[in-house]
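Quick one, T. Sequence first:
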Amino acid sequence: MPGELHDDDRPSSAAPPSRPRPPRRRAWPRVSALVAAAALAALGCTASSASQPAISASQPAAMTPAQIAARAMPAVVTIRGDGSLGAGFLVREDGWIATNFHVVAGMPDLKVVLSDQSEHPVLEVLAFDEARDLAIVRIHAPRRLPLLSLGNSGAVRPGDPVVAIGHPLGLADTVSNGLVSAVRVVDPELTLLQISAPIAPGSSGGPLFNDHGEVIGVAAAVSTQGQNLNFGVPADYLKRLLVRPDPVPLSTFAAETAEEEQGLPAVKRSVPHHALAILRGCTEGDLLVLARTMDGAIQVGSPLYNQGDFASCYHVYAGASLDMERRLGPACRGPRNALIEGRRKAAGLDDEAAQAWAMRDAFDGLLEVILRKVHGEAQ
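Structure tokens:
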């Protein structure tokens, strides 16, 4: 049910692959292995720091988050697929866009929304690195487009300020700031930036800036396993992809990275379709609680399900449901009732896999109506 970890075979850092590999069969919407690997590093299970070069005294003056946002916003884009939402940013004025691999994988129809709200289809995938959750896609540029400059992610140190721009829950151009909490060396081929700036669903693939307005990372994952752990992929990995383009049509890339099911029980989905009125009385804070908690539960439960531990997956989802009910405002009755109904339906089933799916259906129905609401507000 939940997505199988998908990037265990990491390529050499000197030569990340750009051609899609043969498709592998998966069981559930993709969950990046970056989440698990970085979470383990954060808990001290792997090396968690590396020597850092000194900061040059000749660097330009620091900018405020507002100044960074004002300059960067025109180059930050939304990437939409069938039921998916992510962010990206322009790295070349002729339509090259950086994002996460998981934002574009398996999606045969992707649209990029520029800052002027114009939509442009993704034509091809120029390069990707699945192990580090990075991809570069191309659209037809209607004009010379604004782009962002990449900084030296190797110079990033714990305690440095960081600014993130993304589209949490579809709320375009949301700015958050924080600190680099740690530089996590997961293994010799993978280093991640752990940051305190929030990364909510819809912000994956967005840029992370240093205080000079340079991109030093790509927002990649959020873990809510007891605490919020947000991560970014260092920009130096992205630089390697930019000099190694190997274009693949989007249709070919989507077919070769599509998820499939294997070795797990056949399940009939029953995702409820809610009217927007179900969210009446819910504040924006309530919607964020719902989206973040459901996203975190799916990230935890997905690997458990794919490993055949259906009961644990179900209990993770049921526990998250109870937690959301406790945290929602008193006027947010519709989602609370939908969660109660999901648990009631699951409890009436004898099969643990079906119970897990019943809870997942309840989550997906709420996520879908939340996305419809925020998209409607934006329009």
